Amino acid sequence: MGSLLSKPGASAIDTKQPPLHVSIIGAGIGGLALAIALNKQNVPYTIYESAGAYATVGAGVGIGPNAMRAMDMIDKRFRGKYDAVAIGNLTPGKEHVMMEAYLLEEGLGARQGWLGKPWGSPAYTRTAAHRKTLLDIMTSFIPESTVKFNKQVAGIKQLRDKVELTFTDGETIETSAVIGCDGIKGASRRYVLGSRYPDEVLAKYNNQYAYRAIIRMSEAREVLGDLANDAKMYFGRGINLSTYVISEGQEINVVGFVRDPEPWPYDDKVTREVTREKMVADFTAQNIDPRLLKLLDWAKPVQWAMSHHPKTSTYQNGLVCLLGDSAHATLPNQAAGAGQCLEDALILSRLLGRVGATVGSKPAQCDVSSELNAAFEAYESVRRPRAQKQIETSVECGKVYSLMHPDIGTDMNKTVKNLNSRFDWLWKHDLDADVKLAEDRYAELVAMKD
Ligand SMILES: Cc1cc2nc3c(=O)[nH]c(=O)nc-3n(C[C@H](O)[C@H](O)[C@H](O)COP(=O)(O)OP(=O)(O)OC[C@H]3O[C@@H](n4cnc5c(N)ncnc54)[C@H](O)[C@@H]3O)c2cc1C
Q1: Residue 54 zone, left/alpha/beta (φ > 0; ψ -120 to 50; rest)
Q2: Where do the domains of the chain lie?
Q3: What is the DSSP letter of 91?
Q4: What pLDDT score does 17 carry?
Q5: Looking at domain 5-87+129-203+310-406+438-449, which CATH architecture does it have?
Q6: N- or C-end of the chain: fewer Cβ atoms within 10 A?
Q7: pLDDT at residue 303, rounded to an integer
Q8: 29 alpha carbon to ligand 1 midpoint, in Å?
Q9: What's the CA gap between 190 and 344, in Å, rounded?
Q10: Residue list, ligand 1 pocket, CB within 6 Å
C-alpha cells in the first residue's frame, strides 16, 4: 500500500497515514487549488513548499468565466469568497469588455481617429483581484497541519507502488502519489519528461520581457484620468502595455511587454534588474504617450522573462503527475494561466476522489497505484489538449497585441475584430462535460485493468 511514512532515521511526519495519501509539491495557485479541491473530495494530502511562507507577490490576476466556474465546482465557498473581492471595469455597461484598444504612441491614437474600441464577449464578465488577496482566500481553506514550509524537493524516485521524495534538508518520505505543482521550472517536470522528452523539459524564452507596477487608483487617475477606470491595452509595434483595475477598485495593475531579439541570459532566473534609464528607453523608442511613460515611475526596473512550454508530450510518469505551470506554463496574453491551474485541480481532484472512494470501500483488494495511473491518464486525456490550445493561442494573441501578426499587422480594426473572435472557446467551455469525460475515461481504464 502506498502510505506516506518517513524513512528510518528521519523525523516522522505522520505514521497514521491512510492507504491513499497525495503529496503536492508547491503552494502556488495550482497546488492550493488542488488542496482545496481534495479537501472537498476527502482525499488526504500534504503540501511541500520550498519557501518559508505563502507567496506575497504583488501583482494583479484576471480570472475568466471558465476559471470562475472551476472555482465554483471545486468549492462554492471558494467562488463566493472570490466574488466578494473581484472587481471588473468601473464604468457601468462595460461588464463584458475584456479590454479597450488604444495606441501606445503619443495621443493614444486620437489623431488617427482611433477612439479605443472594446473587445470581449457576452460570455465574458471582467473580473480581477490582487494576487495576494486571491492567495489569502485560497490559503484560508488549507488546514495548517497539511502544509510543510521550507521543504524543497531535491529528488523524486519511483518505487514499486509508491514514490520516494527527498528534500534538501535530508529528509526522505514515501507517498502514494506526487502532484508536481512546482511551477515553470519545477523539478517534477524534469522527472516526468527528462528521460523520454528531454527537449521539452526547459521552458522556452519567447524573446519578450515585461515590467510590472501596481498604482493606487487616486494616483493613476491623476495621470490617466478616466482611462484608469477600465481595462486597456495600448498597442505599439513590438511593445504593448495593459492596465486593469484590481484591489476592489483601489489600485490598477500595469504590465508593459517588450519584444527582445536577444536570448535570455539565465537558465535559473526569471527576472533581471536593469537601470531605470534602460527601462524608460525601451518605451521612448516607440514615441510612447507621456501619460503611459509616467506610469513607469511606479514600476521597478526589473524585467520578467516571458517563457512558456510550447510542447509537453505527457503530464505523467508512473505515480508522478504535473499540474499548473509545471505542466503547461503559458505566456500571459489571454490571462488564462491561473485559470488553467483551476481547471486542472477540478478534474484531477474529482478523479482522485474516485480513487479515494474505491480505496475506502475495498482497501484490502484495491491496487492503489493502478487506480492512480488510471486517474492520471484520464486527467491528461481531458486537460492536455485544452491547455495546449491555450498555450498556442496565447502565442498568437501576443503577436496581435504587439502588432506583429502576419495577417493583421498594424490594422487596428482588424486587430479588434480578431480579438473579439478569439476567446469564446476558452471562456464558454463546458467543465461539467470535462468532468464527465474524465470520469468515464477513468472507469474505462479501470475496467480494462481489472
Ligand atoms: C506577467 C504575468 C501575468 C499573469 N497574469 C495572469 C492573469 O491575469 N490570469 C491568469 O489566469 N494567469 C496569469 N498568469 C499566469 C499565472 O500567474 C500562473 O499560471 C500561475 O500562477 C501558476 O501557478 P502554479 O501554482 O502552477 O506555479 P507557481 O505560482 O510558480 O507556484 C509554484 C510553487 O512551487 C514551489 N516550488 C518550486 N520548486 C519547488 C521544490 N523543488 N520543492 C518545493 N516547492 C517548490 C514554489 O516556491 C512556488 O510556491 C500571469 C503570469 C505572468 C508571468
Answers
A1: beta
A2: 5-87+129-203+310-406+438-449, 97-126+204-308
A3: S
A4: 56
A5: 3-Layer(bba) Sandwich (3.50)
A6: C
A7: 98
A8: 6
A9: 19
A10: 25-31, 48-51, 55, 61-62, 152-153, 181-183, 186-187, 210, 255, 304, 324-325, 332, 335-339, 341
| Angle at the Cα of 134 from the Cα atoms of 257 and 49, rounded to 5 degrees | 90
What pLDDT shows up at residue 264?
Answer: 97
pLDDT at position 18: 67
Q: Which residues pair with 5 in a beta bridge?
A: 174
Only one residue has cell 514550509, namely 149
Report the nearest-CA residue for atom 37 of ligand 1: 182
The class level of CATH for 97-126+204-308 reads alpha beta
State the amino acid at position 236 in one-letter form.
G
Name the residues annotated as catalytic: 212, 244
Q: Please tell me the distance from the alpha carbon of residue 207 to that of residue 225, in angstroms, as a whole number.
A: 33
Farthest-apart Cα atoms in the chain, separation: 76
Atom of ligand 1 nearest to the CA of 210: 1
CA of 418 to the centre of ligand 1 (A): 28
Substitution candidate for ligand 1 out of 32, 49, 300 with most atoms within 8 A of CB: 49
Q: Please state whether beta strands 320-322 and 177-180 pair in parallel, antiparallel, or not at all (unpaired).
A: parallel
In single-letter form, the type of residue at position 157 comes to K
CA 4 to chain centroid: 28
> Which pLDDT value is given to residue 19?
86
Q: Quick one: which atom of ligand 1 is closest to the CA of 154?
A: 41
Extract the residue ranges of the chain whose pLDDT is less than 50: 1-15
